[in-house]
Design goal:
The chain is mostly helical. 83% of the residues lie in helices and 0% in strands. The protein is built from eleven helices and no strands. α10 packs across α11. The chain starts with a helix and ends with a helix.
Length: 208
């Protein structure tokens, strides 16, 4: 188990270092563009600065929809389906799915161990979810009032649109500063990105 965790951590480490290298390369390209061809680069920035409203995109999923009435009107059928489905899926996952076999099927070598870890974690997550479904089904069949009280406490509506309201506004202060001083901004961006790339490359090749 320890070796699998170490392998996972090593792969995540390499992934994030490569990610830093990629973004550093983009930064170098943008910085050089600001230095040698500021006008086309700024026009490209204007094209890329498109405002997409997350509030508008999230609006359909923000509307509360009540399904409690249907489940309580047909509580025997719905509860029985939850119990049968939960037991079937839990037993099938517990005795019919082998994480090691899944890993060996979809990958080889170290990748197989990583896939096995993900498959095993997902397997236990689904087993716990199936058990929760069985518990809800039992309460729906034999203790609907208790389930109604639990639903009253659990069914709290949180608006993601309200939380994201401040972050949905465009803040172009940095863009205006770059437009006013493209040359110095390009040099700062290029030097910073080159430093980040050099450091990330040192970390990457030092562990290989």
């Amino acid at each position: 188990m320890t070796s699998n965790v170490n392998l996972l951590l090593q792969m995540l480490y390499q992934f994030f270092v490569v990610l830093v290298l990629v973004f550093a390369g983009i930064g170098v390209a943008a910085g050089i563009g600001l230095i040698v061809a500021s006008a086309p680069t700024l026009r490209f920035f204007h094209v890329m600065n498109r405002w997409i409203s997350t509030r508008g995109a999230l609006r359909p999923v923000e509307i509360p929809r009540d399904t409690d009435g249907f489940s309580h009107r047909h509580r025997r059928w719905v509860g029985g389906a939850l119990i049968a489905g939960g037991i079937f899926s839990a037993v099938g996952l517990a005795f019919g799915v082998d994480a090691a076999t899944v890993g060996a099927t979809f990958a080889k070598g170290g990748g197989a161990r990583l896939v096995a870890i993900v498959a095993g974690t997902l397997r236990w997550f689904l087993i716990v979810g199936s058990g929760a479904g069985v518990a809800v089904g039992l309460m729906l069949c034999f203790s609907p009032d208790g389930l109604a009280r639990l639903e009253k406490q659990a069914n709290q509506w949180f608006s993601a649109r309200r939380v994201l309201r401040g972050g949905d506004e465009m803040n172009l202060t940095l863009d205006r500063l770059v437009e006013a001083h493209p040359g110095p901004s390009g040099w700062i961006l290029t030097c910073t990105a080159l430093g980040a790339a050099a450091y990330a490359a040192t970390l990457l090749f030092a562990r290989t």
